[in-house]
């Protein structure tokens, strides 16, 4: 099977790991980044420490402005967006003219359940693939260097749902085969919205509370009081899913709580962002839950309280 030419928009902890793994397997990768990280990628390449395995790849890296000057969207077989969800709307605004007349499919590997909607607003649903990175922790340790850990699975699917005779299915099956061959455990879901919401259950359960307390996931889920708050925020997310006609149930809550309770003791992305003084993905995680609970006319006291405290602590 022929290799892919992939644009990885956002070569941070998650995007950097997957880019390095795919490049190691022989695919052609182009990266976008900004600031000191971009400078380091240009001069020294990308170095990923994956649980002690060092992956080093010298890959083309650009700012978004440079990217649009040097490439057309259809130079790529796939665009993967691994940006923070806070960046999705401004970046899509920035590159909308560049993207809209192309045909390249776009895969989102981001936190939250609203990124695909924003992307589809620019390129249309037919070009959008929903996706999530599962059981992976990753962050930039210094410019040009990324640390990642966990099984690092990918789940992807046609967004918002797979239609009968959906032309995206053949592409998804090809991506599934190539990603697996590259050492990235990958599955295709016929109901990607369901999978995105299941991940939001975990993200809302631990991300805001970890940023508020400074504790890793294992410390939270094994603490006698905090584990109850984690469970409460996860339960509120399950209830909120009804607003999107996803309708998660008690079995999803139990499975997701068990999964995060038994996962590595990781610093959540929101905790890392808070420590580094970066914007938090609070609106796309807790905010997504609160907006939907309000629409449904139900209370979400755990999420509301933790979100309010965290917002206040940010000033």
TrEMBL record:
GO terms for molecular function: 2-dehydropantoate 2-reductase activity. SUPFAM superfamilies: 6-phosphogluconate dehydrogenase C-terminal domain-like (SSF48179), NAD(P)-binding Rossmann-fold domains (SSF51735). It comes from the Bacteria. Pathway: Cofactor biosynthesis; (R)-pantothenate biosynthesis; (R)-pantoate from 3-methyl-2-oxobutanoate: step 2/2. It is an enzyme of class 1 (oxidoreductase). GO terms for biological process: pantothenate biosynthetic process. Its EC number is 1.1.1.169. Residues 6-160 form the Ketopantoate reductase N-terminal domain. The keyword Oxidoreductase applies. Catalyzes the NADPH-dependent reduction of ketopantoate into pantoic acid. Belongs to the ketopantoate reductase family. This is 2-dehydropantoate 2-reductase. The lineage of its organism: Bacteria, Pseudomonadati, Pseudomonadota, Gammaproteobacteria, Pseudomonadales.
């Amino acid at each position: 099977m022929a290799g892919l030419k992939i644009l990885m928009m956002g070569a941070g902890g998650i995007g950097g790991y997957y880019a390095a793994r795919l490049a190691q397997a022989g695919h052609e990768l182009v990266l976008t980044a900004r600031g000191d990280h971009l400078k380091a990628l240009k001069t020294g390449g990308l170095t990923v420490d994956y649980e002690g395995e060092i992956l080093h790849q010298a890959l083309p890296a650009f700012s978004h402005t440079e990217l649009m000057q040097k490439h057309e969207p259809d130079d790529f077989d796939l665009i993967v967006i691994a940006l923070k969800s806070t960046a999705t709307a401004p970046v899509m605004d920035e590159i909308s003219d560049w993207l809209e007349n192309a045909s390249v499919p776009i895969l989102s590997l981001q936190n939250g359940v609203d990124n695909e909607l924003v992307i589809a607003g620019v390129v249309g649903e037919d070009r959008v693939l929903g996706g999530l990175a599962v059981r992976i922790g990753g962050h930039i340790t210094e410019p040009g260097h990324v640390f990642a850990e966990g099984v690092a699975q990918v789940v992807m699917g046609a967004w918002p749902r797979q239609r009968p005779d959906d032309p995206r299915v053949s592409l998804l099956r090809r991506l599934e085969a190539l990603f697996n061959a590259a050492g990235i455990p990958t599955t295709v879901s016929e109901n990607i919205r369901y999978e995105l919401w299941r991940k939001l259950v975990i993200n809302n359960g631990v991300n805001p509370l970890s940023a508020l307390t400074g504790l890793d996931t294992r410390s939270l889920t094994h603490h006698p009081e905090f584990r109850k708050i984690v469970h409460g925020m996860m339960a509120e997310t399950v209830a909120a899913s009804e607003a999107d006609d996803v309708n998660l149930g008690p079995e999803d809550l139990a499975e997701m709580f068990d999964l995060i309770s038994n996962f590595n003791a990781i610093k959540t992305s929101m905790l890392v962002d808070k420590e580094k003084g970066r914007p938090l993905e609070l609106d796309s995680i807790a905010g997504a839950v609160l907006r939907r609970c309000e629409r449904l006319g139900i209370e979400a006291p755990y999420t509301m309280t933790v979100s309010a405290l965290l917002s206040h602590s940010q000033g």
